[in-house]
Structures are given as structure tokens and as C-alpha cells.
Design goal:
The complex is a heterodimer of chains A (275) and B (629). By secondary structure, chain A is α/β, with parallel strands linked by helices. Helices cover 35% and strands 13% of the residues of chain A. In chain A, the strands form three sheets. A five-stranded parallel beta sheet of chain A has the order 1-5-4-2-3. In chain A, helix 4 (65-74) packs across helix 5 (92-104). Helices cover 31% and strands 17% of the residues of chain B. Classes of the chains: A alpha/beta (275), B alpha+beta (629).
Chain lengths: 275, 629
């Protein structure tokens, strides 16, 4: 199994999203590392062939760059191997993991175009075998340009050309958000046909409607750990926005730091929900 | 702009395919009936592009706020409460007839661009709230894909044309008015003659004299057959609002062949003579009132002759009832079968299914078929509920469509008796199987302060709270309460139709002691239908005492009623001063109810001075209404 983990070979370069056919062919050629970010017990039940297990919680609990690189190496991921990541949570967990890999310097990671449920629904291959691969070396090369922290976000508000995007659902956004943020709920970029994201043309139109040009710098955030906003991060990438940053600690940290919020209390909009 | 183009006037082949009927083990001789697919092409792609362009121009300051508002309303988007960057998108559902595919589309649009729930209005629209203005064109794009439109859902236009949700299945109807309602809707939508009326214009079709809001519309129509001629009883100049009027009967019988000409004549008169100065008095009902009914009636008859003499053949052809009329011919039962009720009566201890069957299902004139009502809370339904409902309709309704009702519920018709339990199970699986749809518990509430600029109180939440409490008390199981209604508006403007409720409420603000409190003016004795009456104001009630007062009124009723009279009959007698015992008239009732409305001081009981859904001090905030652009 180690023969394909070879930095001297030319690996296939993934784009933001990997379609099922590409993944299947890469699996057949043994030239891909598939990462399943669902819970360990779900992985144990069944997963995409050759997939390794990396529950999101494990990554979040070990989120310093050196710990993350250690995880990569432990999964047998070297610098150039294509990594395709999937979940069963409409892509949000996979997105957060993919972003983290990219942050520490893995430049060939993509989201599987669909959820695991949809993969199964299409009758595609699965297996039960627990996969492990020999440890590989991975270099550390932090991509600061895709990350934003609270002080960066605070400063960004005053700079034109920088757009803050809140990925939470509309009612949460209306209740309170970081001042000046625009709302693109994760439900808006998600797709209803089994794929995790809509096509790039649609997403492009949505952000153009909002007056966000593709050469803006966009910072995405959501409610807690950057999963929903991670998905938005990749949606924006897919739509051709090159300069996107994730405020990974998101609104939870923002609030705990006691920073300014915009609230809207003149309407009882929550009472319109039938939940 | 030409009157219309062919693409919306003819059946699209895609939608003309006959629907396959459901076959299962339960045999029925009417199982093999085929229903035509609806012709749902109301929307137009180019209007979505236009909307997106206009939003951009408006944001760039190249379109004035007034111009933009007019355009926006014409295309079905209202400003949201005190937040003009968001819209309420009103989807017209002509005749209330909606397909499973359309429900599914609305579900995904509500998730993507709204709040994950949709809202059924009191005029057979479905509304998506808190849509960002920049996304309205995207919602419209999705609607067009499903054949729906928001065109002329707001603004000074002919609004959604309503039709009784029983049309086609009502045992008492002369004929099914649906094709006429839809043909009228198609004729007037985008029609140059009604793009700039003095004010909005509402047309409601009934099935019979009982069901339908015919006397509270600008034009209300009841199907009638006179000497084998199909036609209507036409009521004019009704409407609810700050000042409400009941419509007047135009003539004993208006043949269907004159329906178009009559409607055109009325709209032309309104367009010419309606008040364009005073926004508060520019509905047609004021014109009728100020001119006097006799004079107005003569003008309508005269104008109709002019229309008849001058109307072009090509215009008449645009009014295409046959295109809408491909309806199945089911055998009408000789006697209407009773409900498959296991017990004659239900109680609060009955099984959930029995309770539901008793209050949410009615037999149709078609033998073996039933209409099921889906109980919503003040018209709200989640995206997932919509999807489950759509599947159930597709699988189990022989006509494979739903109708939304002015009671803010859905009516699903043509359900075979043997499928009732399965339909119930599917509804129950997603929290949609509440009983009481056809009883006093099914409380109507407009959107109120959840999204409307004009609202003073949170009528929407209150309606849900009332429904919840009355179901908890088992009021749905009491047949004597069954024919009564409770309807709540958040301001005097009557979107909650409080004036046609047995007990109606409209929101306001009152000073009580040293503090302001949200209050409702309570009305008694309103009713819909041809013999409809407007409710009479009784008293003001603090918002947080509305539930108590309803319970108290029912308690007095149970104590004071004579023999078998229903709650509605009892209330009507009080309104007419003909009540018995200690409930002789409204004044007697006021005296008995007054203690319930008393509040302790704001310091002792601050919660009673707050509105539902609010943890802060009440203050009446409103902004400019957008109804009239």
C-alpha cells in the first residue's frame, strides 16, 4: 500500500471540490487519501473505500499547527498527496477539516462533492475495513492569509474592500451579529440535490447580487467553531473569490471577548418559525 | 406591453399529462379517475432579471425610493418591519391550488433565503419572511421554475384571486368555480388596465353561500345556476379594514357569459372614480359608500353595456375558462357519506387519531372521498413539514394538489377513506397532526410584529398561544364550539380578519395605570359567507389576558346557554341583545368579563405589561404601511 505515497510521482492536483468519479478513479489508482470526519462509530460501521477516520472533534481538540501536522503525518498524508474529505453533515465538518489542512500547509485537499449518505444512495462502494497507513513526513507551512482572528476582524470592519460574512441562519443573524457583517446563511450556498454546494454560477450570482466582487477580501464566520463558515469559505472559493479568510473562532469567541454587536430587537421574528 | 402572450394562456404540454391515479388494495369504483395536471405557469423569468436589476439601481441611488417601492410591491415584495433591507415575499396561489412540486420548491426557497418556515396567509398566499432584498430575485427565479409568481401580490393591483377550498367538492355548490377564478386571475395579471389602480383590489370566489369570503371583497362571487344557465351571485364593495363594509348584491343572477365584462366594468369604474388622494379611503368600498349603492350599481350596469359593446374579440379570447376547466367528472354521491367516525363523539381522552378524524376531516360530494385539513399554528410550516406534506399529497390525494385556506391551514382533497389513517400517520410523523382544524381552536393570526410595519402587537404569537391552550383544554372535542372561530389582527387593519370571527381581536396600545401595555379590542359575532356579519366591539383586553378571557367566555356560555344552542348562536344572541340569563347583551357580558381584564400595577406584575415574545418594556412602534404604493 505504500507504493503510491511517493513524493517523486506527479500527483493529481485537486480543485475545491472533488467529484465522485474522480475520487473513485483516484481510489482505484491508490493515489489519494480519503478522510472521513464523521464520528468514529459511524466510520466503523461503513465508509468510502481506503478512507481513514478523523473525527472533527479530535482535530478541534488538537488544533495547534504542530498537533495538526502530527495528525496529518499519522494519517499517512505527505505534502503533495491529494486528500479528499467528506462528512454526513452537508459538508460543513469536512470543510472545517479541509481548511485546517490547508492552513498548516497542505495544498492539495478538496471536499467530496456529496455527503456520505448521498454516496450510499447512489449505490457507490463502501467498506468496513479500518484503514491505517504508514506514517509520512509533512512539512509545516502556515498559511496566515486564510485565517482571521478577532483583532483582525475588528480592524477589517473599517477597511473598504473587506467584507465580513456571517454564515448563520437568518434568525440568528437578525438577533445579533458582528457590526457590518453581511449574511449569507450556509443554507443558501448548500444544494438540495445531494451535493454539498450549489454550482459556482449560482453562488457567483448570489454574491454579486450582494455587491461582493470577486476581488474583495472576504472573512467568513459562524456561531462557534467555524464549520458553517468553513463551508461558506469553500463556496466562495468555488465562486471564484480568491482572497477568503476564516474567522475560525467565530461569534462565540467574539461574544466572550465582549466585543461590539449589532442587534435587531424591533420585531418578534422568532415567532414566525414553526420549529 | 401586450395584454398577454400565448405562453401563459395555453396548457404547457409538460403540465397537461394526465396524472396516474393511486391504486392500492382498497378498491373503490372511482379509483380509476384521472385528474389533469394543473397548468401552473404564472411566473415569468424576465421579471426575476428585472427585479435584480432594479435592486442594483436602487442600491446605486439611480432609482428613487418611491419609484423602487412601487416596483417592488408590484412584484410582490413588502418591506419588513422597521428593516427595509429585508422583504416579505408574497407568493400568489390563485384559487389556493398548489402542487406538491410547488410546495417542495417553497420549502427549499424558505431554507435558502428565508427563515426555514413559510407562512400561509388569510388570502391564500404563501409568504416567505425576512428575505434579504438582494435575494428576492433569486426567490422569484425559483418560483418561476415551479410555475409560481409574486407578480401583483402587493401594490395597487388585482391581488390573489381567492376561491373556496371546497370548490369542486362542496355538497352545496352549484358548480366548481375554480376554473372561473383562475381564468379571471389570468386575465387580470399583468393586464395594463389594472397596473395602477387607486388601491388594491380583491376578488373572492365561493363554492356555496356558506363557504367563502364573498362579502368582504371588492368582488365576491357565489356560483349559481338559473334555468340551466351557469352564473354567479355577484357582491360588490365589501372589505375589512379600519372601516369595514359588507358587499352589496349587484343583481339576482349574473350569467357566467357576462363574468368577464362585469369584472372589467367594475375595475374600470374603480380606476376612474376611486379616490387617488386619500390613501386611507381609497378602497372601492369607500367609493361605493360615498356614492351610494344604488348609484354605483347603475353605473356598473351601464359600464358593463359599454364594455360589452366595445370589447374586442381578441380581448375576450384572453379570458380562457376552458383552458382552466379540464376537471375530472367524479360521480356525485346520492347521499353524502358520514365520516368514518368510530364513535359519535370524541372527548379529550379519545385517541389522537379519532380526535383528529373528528375535527380535521370532512366528506366530499364525491362518494368515498374526504377532505383532510392540516392544522398549522397561525399559518406557519417548516421546510421539512412542507416536504413530508408534499409527499403525502402526491401519494394519497387523487387530485394530487393542496389548497391553502383563509384559516391559514391546508386542505388536501380527494383522499380515499382507506387512506385516511396513513395520511394521519404521515402528518403525525412530522408534527402536523394537531386536531381542531375545523373548530374554534384553529386560531387565525396575521404576522403582527413578527414582520409587519403596521403591527402594534404580536398577534401571530398570540394566535399560536391561544390555539395551544384551547387544544390543551380539549375545546376541539366539543361540538358546540365547533362552528365558532377566533381571529386576531395585530392592528386595526384586519389582515387577521378579526371582524368575521365569532370572537375577534385587534391589537393596540393602552395606558394602564402608569405604564403602556399591549391590548386587544375584542369583537363578538362576526361571520363569513353570504349571510356574514361584521363583529361588534365589546371591550379592550390586555394581551396577556386574552386567553383568560376566552376561557371565561366559554365558561359563562356553558353555564348560561339554553339547551342545544351552539357557542356561535349564543354569542350572536348576545350581540343582538337577545341573550338569556345573566348574558343578555354586550353590556352584561362586559360587566362579567371586566374583572378578568384588570391588571395589578406594573411594578407588581411587569410581565402582564409586556407583549408575547418580548422580555422588554412594551412600546408601540410602527412605520409607514406599504399596502398602498
Amino acid at each position: 500500500m505504500t507504493k503510491n505515497i511517493d513524493n517523486n510521482h506527479n500527483y493529481f492536483q485537486l480543485s475545491v471540490i472533488c467529484d465522485a468519479e474522480t475520487l473513485r478513479s483516484l481510489i482505484k489508482k491508490e493515489r489519494v487519501r480519503v478522510v472521513d470526519v464523521r464520528k468514529a462509530e459511524d466510520y466503523a460501521q461503513e465508509h468510502i473505500p481506503t478512507a481513514v477516520s478523523l473525527p472533527l472533534a479530535r482535530l478541534l481538540a488538537n488544533d495547534t499547527p504542530s498537533e495538526i501536522v502530527d495528525i496529518l503525518e499519522g494519517l499517512g498524508i505527505s505534502d503533495r498527496i491529494p486528500v479528499v474529505i467528506y462528512d454526513d453533515t452537508f459538508g460543513a465538518l469536512a470543510a472545517r477539516v479541509a481548511w485546517t489542512f490547508q492552513y498548516v500547509g497542505h495544498t492539495n485537499a478538496a471536499l467530496l462533492e456529496m455527503t456520505f449518505s448521498h454516496w450510499k444512495k447512489l449505490g457507490l462502494e463502501t467498506e468496513k475495513k479500518i484503514n491505517t497507513f504508514p506514517r509520512e513526513k509533512h512539512s509545516v507551512n502556515i498559511h496566515h492569509d486564510i485565517h482571521a482572528d478577532a483583532s483582525y476582524v475588528e480592524k477589517a470592519k473599517e477597511q473598504s474592500g473587506r467584507v465580513l460574512v456571517d454564515s448563520r441562519e437568518r434568525l440568528n443573524f437578525l438577533t445579533e451579529h458582528i457590526p457590518g457583517a453581511k449574511n449569507i446563511p450556509y443554507t443558501m450556498v448548500g444544494s438540495s440535490n445531494g451535493n454539498i454546494l450549489r454550482n459556482s454560477k449560482e453562488i457567483k450570482r448570489f454574491i454579486e447580487n450582494r455587491g461582493i466582487s470577486s476581488d474583495s477580501e472576504v472573512i467568513t464566520y459562524c456561531g462557534s467553531v467555524g464549520t458553517l463558515s468553513g463551508l461558506t469559505y469553500y463556496a466562495l472559493k468555488l465562486a471564484g473569490v480568491d482572497n477568503v479568510k476564516l474567522y475560525s473562532k467565530s461569534f462565540r469567541e467574539w461574544k466572550s471577548l465582549g466585543k461590539a454587536k449589532e442587534e435587531f430587537r424591533d420585531a418578534n421574528y422568532w415567532d414566525l418559525s414553526a420549529e | 406591453m401586450s395584454l398577454s402572450t400565448k405562453d401563459i394562456w395555453f396548457h404547457d404540454p409538460e403540465y397537461s399529462i394526465l396524472k396516474k391515479t393511486i391504486v392500492n388494495n382498497a378498491s373503490s369504483k372511482q379509483r380509476n379517475v384521472s385528474f389533469p395536471r394543473l397548468n401552473p405557469r404564472w411566473g415569468r423569468e424576465e421579471e426575476t432579471e428585472l427585479f435584480a436589476q432594479k435592486v442594483k439601481l436602487f442600491r446605486q441611488g439611480r432609482l428613487s425610493e418611491d419609484e423602487f417601492r412601487r416596483f417592488r410591491l408590484q412584484h410582490g415584495a413588502y418591506g419588513s418591519r422597521l428593516q427595509m433591507n429585508y422583504s416579505m415575499v408574497r407568493i400568489k396561489i390563485p384559487s389556493g391550488e398548489i402542487t406538491p412540486e410547488q410546495l417542495e420548491k417553497i420549502a427549499s426557497l424558505s431554507e435558502a433565503f428565508s427563515i426555514g418556515s413559510a407562512h400561509v396567509s388569510t388570502r391564500q398566499n404563501i409568504q416567505l419572511h425576512w428575505v434579504q432584498l438582494e435575494d428576492v430575485s433569486e426567490v422569484m427565479r425559483g418560483l418561476v421554475e415551479a410555475g409560481l409568481t409574486t407578480r401583483e401580490a402587493c401594490g395597487n393591483t388585482v391581488r390573489n384571486v381567492m376561491c373556496s377550498h371546497f370548490a369542486g367538492v362542496c355538497p352545496d355548490e352549484a358548480f366548481d368555480a375554480t376554473p372561473y377564478a383562475k381564468a379571471i386571475a389570468r386575465f387580470f395579471i399583468r393586464n395594463p388596465m389594472c397596473q395602477n389602480l387607486p388601491r388594491k383590489f380583491k376578488i373572492n370566489f365561493a363554492c356555496c353561500s356558506e363557504h367563502g369570503l364573498v362579502r368582504i371583497a371588492d368582488i365576491g362571487l357565489i356560483p349559481a345556476i338559473n334555468d340551466d344557465v351557469i352564473g354567479f351571485k355577484v357582491y360588490l364593495g365589501g372589505g375589512l379594514g379600519a372601516a369595514s363594509f359588507l358587499g352589496h348584491l349587484l343583481e339576482e343572477f349574473t350569467p357566467a357569459s357576462k363574468l368577464l365584462q362585469t369584472s372589467m366594468a367594475i375595475i374600470r369604474l374603480f380606476d376612474r372614480h376611486g379616490n387617488r388622494e386619500n390613501m386611507a379611503r381609497n378602497r372601492m368600498r369607500y367609493l361605493v359608500h360615498e356614492m351610494g349603492w344604488d348609484k354605483f350599481k347603475k353605473m356598473v350596469i351601464k359600464e358593463r353595456s359599454i364594455v360589452e359593446m366595445t370589447i374586442a374579440d381578441s380581448t375576450v379570447k384572453l379570458y380562457d375558462t376552458p383552458a382552466e376547466e379540464v376537471r375530472p367528472l367524479l360521480n356525485t354521491a346520492h347521499t353524502i357519506k358520514k365520516l368514518p367516525i368510530l364513535n359519535e363523539y370524541v372527548t379529550i381522552k379519545s385517541s389522537a387519531y379519532e380526535r383528529w378524524l373528528h375535527t380535521n376531516v370532512v366528506p366530499q360530494k364525491q362518494e368515498g372521498y374526504y377532505t383532510i385539513f392540516v392544522t398549522l399554528g397561525a399559518g406557519d410550516i417548516t421546510a421539512n413539514q412542507l416536504r413530508t406534506l408534499a409527499r403525502a399529497i402526491r401519494d394519497l390525494s387523487a387530485e394530487s394538489t393542496a389548497r391553502n385556506t383563509p384559516q391559514q391551514n391546508f386542505a388536501i382533497r380527494h383522499i380515499n377513506e382507506s387512506d385516511l389513517h396513513e395520511f394521519y400517520d404521515r402528518l403525525a410523523s412530522i408534527g402536523l397532526a394537531n386536531p381542531g382544524a375545523l373548530t374554534i381552536t384553529s386560531t387565525v393570526g396575521c404576522s403582527g410584529t413578527t414582520s409587519c410595519n403596521l403591527a402594534i402587537t404580536n398577534s401571530h404569537r398570540l394566535a399560536k398561544e391561544v390555539q395551544h391552550r384551547l387544544l390543551e383544554l380539549g375545546f376541539d372535542t366539543e361540538d358546540s364550539l365547533r362552528d365558532s372561530t377566533i381571529k386576531i389582527s395585530g392592528c386595526p387593519n384586519s389582515c387577521g380578519q378579526h371582524e368575521i370571527a365569532t370572537i375577534g381581536f385587534f391589537g393596540g396600545a393602552s395606558r394602564i395605570g402608569s405604564a403602556m401595555a399591549p391590548t386587544y379590542t375584542m369583537l363578538f359575532g362576526g361571520s363569513a359567507g353570504e349571510q356574514g356579519q361584521l363583529g361588534k366591539a365589546v371591550m379592550r383586553v390586555p394581551a396577556k389576558r386574552v386567553i383568560d378571557i376566552i376561557e371565561k367566555i366559554v365558561e359563562i356560555y356553558k353555564r348560561e346557554r339554553s339547551s342545544n344552542e351552539t357557542f356561535k348562536e349564543w354569542i350572536n344572541k348576545i350581540v343582538n341583545g337577545e341573550g338569556t340569563g345573566s348574558a343578555k347583551n354586550i353590556d352584561y357580558m362586559k360587566a362579567m368579563l371586566n374583572p378578568v381584564t384588570q391588571l395589578a400595577s406594573v411594578e407588581q406584575d411587569p410581565d402582564s405589561y409586556r407583549d408575547y415574545g418580548a422580555d422588554i418594556k412594551f412600546s408601540a412602534k410602527t412605520a409607514r404601511g406599504e399596502c398602498a404604493a
